[in-house]
Amino acid sequence: MFKRIRKHLGREKQENNSGTVPMNADDPLPQSIDKVKEKLEEFFSDCSDYIQREIVCGEDNDVRILVAHIDGFVDKKVLNQDIIRPILDYFSCSDRPYRAKYVYQLVKSCIISNNEIEEIESMRQAVYRIVSGDAILFVNGSKRALAVGVKSPHGRQVAEPDTEVSIRGSREGFVENLSTNMILIRKRIKNPNLKFEIIQLGTQTNTDICLCYIKGIANDEIVNEVRRRIMKIKTDAILDTGYIEQYITDNRLTLFPLVGNSEKCDKLVSKLLEGRVAILCDGTPYVLTLPYLLIEALQTSDDYYDHAFFATFMRLLRLFALFISTLLPALYVALVSFHHIVIPFKLIITLAASRQGIPFSPFVEALLMIMAFEFLREAGVRMPKTVGQALSIVGAIVLGEASVAAGIASNLMVIIVAITAICSFITPPLIRVTMLLRFVFLIIANFFGFLGISLIAVVVIIHLCKLRSFGIPYMTPFSPLTISDLKDTVIMAPIWAMITRPRLMLQGDTQNTMGTKRQEVNKISED
Amino acid sequence: MEKARISGLQLFMLMTGFLLGSRLIINPATEAKNDGWIAILISGAGGAILLTLYTSISLLNPSRTLVDILRHQFGKSLGNIIALFYIWYFIHLASLVFRNFGSFLVTTTYPRTPMEIIIAFFALTIIYAVNSGIEVMGRLSEILVPIVPVSSIIIGLSVVTTHDFTAFLPVLENGIKPVIKASLNLLSFPFGEAIVFLTIFPYLNKKKSLKKITALSVLLVTGLFLYIFFRNIIVLESNFIDQATFVPHVTSVLFPGINLEPLFDVIMIIGGGIKIISTIYAAVMNLNQLIGAANYRKFTTCIVMFSVVLSIWVYENIFEVFHWAGNIWFYYSIPFQIVIPVILLILSLVKKGRSQNEGT
C-alpha cells in the first residue's frame, strides 16, 4: 500500500516539475549587445534587484561592454575597482592601440584583475551565473561572455554551534555559506585527496550541493552510490540538507536516522577520516554524513580528546540513559500493574501511600505527565529565549509540585518522568525516536507487562537489524559482529590503540578490508 | 532460496538458541530424577552423532535445502511427498513450542490473561522476524541468545546460598531404565529437532567450519543443560523437581533479596522465540520451494496462524503437552529425525561414490 502511495506522490511531483522549467533559453549568446540586453531584460522583468550597465568607450566609442549583476549580491567595491575601472582606464588612453576584434580577448586576459573568471557560451548559463552572484561581462561582437566572481561575503561569522556544545575541542561550527564551510574543512585536512564535488539541485532554487570525501579512504562504491542517489533527486527546491536526507535515505519508513548530521567542523572531519562521505548544502550549517550507524548516536567528539577511561564511562552512561529514556515509564507501569512482586516490600508500601487518592491508573498518570513534559519541551524549543525562564518556572511548579499536590500524579511518577526527560537529552540524535518509542512501550506495557515490553523490544531490534545505511548494516559492529571495530563502541580504546579504521567503510583494496565484509558493501548494487 | 549469507557466529547463536529452546523452561531429563546428569551426557553424545549426520548430509549436498536434497535423492514425486511430511512435522513442532511457552507464561506470570492472546502476540513478533529473512534472524540471535546463558548463570550463582551439593547422589538409585528413557527423550527433543537446520545450513558463508560450529554448539548446550540440572537439583532436590511444572521458574523465584522472576521468565522466552523462528522459517522455505513460488513471505502468516491454532486446539492442558512431549514425541519423531536422514546419508554417499567413479 505504501508503495502505491509513494508512487502516486512521485507522479504528482514529476508533473509539477515538468510544468515549471524556469527558462527555455539553451540557445547561444547573440553577438550583438543590444540583443543580449533585450533578452536579459525579458528574463529579469520585474526584478528590481537586477542591474545592468553599459560601458561605452574607446576612440570612436566602438567598445561596448555590458555589465550585468544582481544588486547587493556582488561586492560593488571590487566590481568597480577590479573590472570597470581597468576597462575604462585602458580604453580611454589613446596611446594604447587595440583592434575592435580582439576587445574580448584583451578584456579577458590583460584588463580584468580579478582571478575568478570563467567563459560562458549560452544564455542559460549567463542567467544562471547572474542569479548566483557573479557579474557578467558581455562584449559587443563576441560569442562568449565573461563571468567574474565578485560575490560579496554574506552571512554569519563562524561561531560555536548552539546545538552541539563540546567541552573540549574546536569551537568552530559551520555557517550558511558553502564556500566558508569548504574552507573550514580544507583548513583541517590539507591534502589534495580531499575532494569537493559540486552538484546543482532544485529546478527552482538551483542550490549548490557539495559532495565531500577523502579519496583513498572513503569507499568508492559508497561514494558512487551517494552520487547516484543525489543525481536521482528530482525536486524544485532544496532548502536544507534535511531535504536531501529524506530523498537519499535507504528506508523511508523508519523512525531511526539513517543519515547523520553535524554542525561541528572537527566532528565532520573525523567522520571524513573514518571514510564517511559528507554532503554540504549552500544555505544551511547542517552537514550530512553517511553512512550513519546506530553507534554514532553514542559517540561525541569530546570522547576522543579525553582519556579513554572517562570516555568509556561516559559511553556506558549514555547507553544506559538511552535505555532509561525509552523504557523507564513503561517499566514502571508494567511493575505497578502486573509485577508488584518484583518491587521490594518496603518500596511497595511507600508507593501505595503515594498513589493513594490518585484517580488514574498508572498508565494514564504516566501518559499525562509525559505529555505535559513533551508540551513543555516543544514550547521551550519554539519560544523566544527571553520567555524561556518563565516557561521553566511554570514547568517546574506545575509538573513538580502542583500535580502532586492536586492529586493528579504521584511523587514517584514525577521522579520517573523527570529522569526520563533528562536521559532523553543525553543522546540528541535519537531524541525523537526515543520519544515515540516511549509511548509505544508505555501502551504495550499497560496491556502485556514485561512480555509486551520485551516483544516490542525484539521487534525494534529486528527492525534495527534490517536497516542498512548505504549498504552498511545499521547495527555494525555489534551485529554482524566485527571484533576489531568494537574498540570504538561502548567500551572505547585509547586513541593510540585505534590503529585501524572501521572496516566496512574502508576503500575496497586496502588490506584491512576482508572479503566477507566487502560482500556487504557489494549489496548496494544489488539493492 | 534467499540471496543471503550468515556468518559462523550467527549460525552458532541461532543453533544454540534453538537447542536450548523449550528446555530452558522445562527441566532437562526430569524422568531420570537425580541421575539426570548421566542422561544429559548420553543425549549430548547422541546429539553430537545426530548433528554429524545432518551436517554430513548438508555437506554432501552442498547449497541444497531440505526439499532439494529429498527430491534429488528420492526422485521428484517421492521426494515431494516426504517433504510434505517434513513440513507438517515442522509446523507441529512449532505449535508444540508455542503451546509450551503460552502455558508457561499463563502459569507463571500472567494467570489472568487468556493464553490465546499471549500466543497470538508472540506469533506476530515471529511473523515479523521470519519475514525479515535469514540474515536478520542471524543478527537477531547474535544479539539476543548470549543473554540466555548469562542470565541462567547469574541465577545459578545467586541461588547457590540454598544448597545441598550431595543432592544428586546416590548414582543410579532407580536403575538404568529411567536414565535411558530420559536420554532418548532429550535426544529427540531438542537435538534431533535440529533436522530443521538442513534448511538453514546452506546459508553459511564458510562451509568448512560447519561441523566445528555444530559441534561447539552441541557442546555448549550440553554443558548448559548439565549446569541447569545441577543448579536445580542442588537447590530444589529431586522430589520437588518431580512435582514442579516449570522447574527453572521455581529456581529463579529463589533469587535472593528481590523477586526478579518475571524478568527471567521473559528472558527464557528468547530460546523459544529462536526455536519457533527457525522452525517456521524451515517450514515456510520448504513449502515455498515445494510449490515453486517466488516469495516465501506470502506463506509465513498462514503457517504461523495454522500452528498457533493447532497449538491451542490439539492439547487440553499443559499436562497433556508434557505427556505428549515425554512419551509419544520420541516415537513420532523417529522417522523424521533418524530413519529418513540415515537413508539420505546412505543415498548421498552412494551417489557421491558413483559420480567419483565416473569422474575417474
Explained architecture:
The complex is a heterodimer of chains A (527) and B (360). Chain A folds into three domains: 25-148, no CATH class; 178-304, no CATH class; 309-466, no CATH class. By secondary structure, chain A is α+β, with helices and mostly antiparallel strands. In chain A, helix 6 (178-188) crosses helix 9, helix 13 runs antiparallel to helix 14 (388-405) and helix 13 (362-382) crosses helix 15. Chain A has helices at residues 2-19, 33-43, 76-92, 103-111, 123-131, 178-188, 220-232, 241-248, 265-273, 301-305, 308-337, 345-355, 362-382, 388-405, 411-424, 431-466, 515-526, and strands spanning 50-57, 63-70, 117-120, 135-139, 145-148, 194-201, 207-214, 260-262, 277-281, 287-290, 468-469, 472-473. Chain A has a five-stranded antiparallel β-sheet, sandwiched between helices. In chain A, strands 6-7-9-10-8 form a five-stranded antiparallel β-sheet, sandwiched between helices. Chain A has a two-stranded antiparallel ribbon with strand order 11-12. Residues 13-22 and 507-527 of chain A have low confidence and may be disordered. Chain A has 17 helices and twelve strands. With 360 residues, chain B is mostly helical. Chain B has one domain (8-324): Amino acid/polyamine transporter I. Chain B has 14 helices and no strands. The radius of gyration of chain B is 20 Å and the shape is globular. The A-B interface holds A 338-339, 341-342, 344, 448-452, 454-455, 458-459, 461-462, 465-466, 473, 475, 478-481, 516, 519, 526 and B 3, 5, 7, 9-10, 105, 109-110, 113, 118, 121-122, 125, 128-129, 132, 135-136, 139-140, 142-144, 205, 258-263, 265-266, 269, 273.
How is the secondary structure organized here?
The complex is a heterodimer of chains A (527) and B (360).
Chain A: H1 2-19, H2 33-43, E1 50-57, E2 63-70, H3 76-92, H4 103-111, E3 117-120, H5 123-131, E4 135-139, E5 145-148, H6 178-188, E6 194-201, E7 207-214, H7 220-232, H8 241-248, E8 260-262, H9 265-273, E9 277-281, E10 287-290, H10 301-305, H11 308-337, H12 345-355, H13 362-382, H14 388-405, H15 411-424, H16 431-466, E11 468-469, E12 472-473, H17 515-526
Antiparallel strand pairs in A: 1-2, 2-4, 3-5, 4-5, 6-7, 7-9, 8-10, 9-10, 11-12
Helix pairs in contact in A: 6-9, 11-15, 11-16, 13-14, 13-15
Chain B: H1 8-20, H2 36-60, H3 66-74, H4 76-108, H5 115-131, H6 134-144, H7 147-158, H8 177-188, H9 210-236, H10 238-243, H11 247-253, H12 261-291, H13 297-314, H14 318-359
Helix pairs in contact in B: 1-6, 1-9, 1-12, 2-8, 2-9, 2-14, 3-4, 3-14, 4-5, 4-12, 4-13, 4-14, 5-12, 5-13, 6-12, 7-9, 7-12, 8-14, 12-13
